[in-house]
Amino acid sequence: MSERDIEIIKKATKKFFGENASVYLFGSRTDDSKKGRDIDLYIETNVFQNIIDRKVKMLAELHKEPGNRKSIL
Which DSSP category does 38 fall into? Predict the structure, then answer.
């Protein structure tokens, strides 16, 4: 993953899950020698209201990010 991709994900996580939210990458994308297709994220947050709605909105925002459709999603 590029540094730009990482920053985009961190920014979206804070936007939708709060400033205290943490996001962790796991799965095949943690190994740069592997070419995994999807990105597995684990998000820790203390914001639980409308959590599914927040997740959907975050995914939609990541999907709309110019030039990142293939690299982020």
Answer: S
Helices vs. strands in the chain: H and E counts, helices first: 3, 2
8 has pLDDT over 70: yes
Give the C-alpha separation, 27 to 53, whole Å.
Answer: 24
CA torsion angle for 54, 29, 63, 60 (degrees, to 10)? Answer: -10
Any alpha helices (H) in the chain, and if so which ranges? 3-17, 51-64, 69-72
Q: Name, in order, each residue with C-beta under 8 angstroms of 29's C-beta and a sequence gap of 6 or more.
A: 1, 36, 38, 39, 40
Angular region, 67: left φ>0, alpha ψ -120 to 50, beta rest: left
Distances (CA, A) of 8 to 33, 49, 71: 22, 23, 11
With a threshold of 0.85, does the pTM exceed it?
A: no
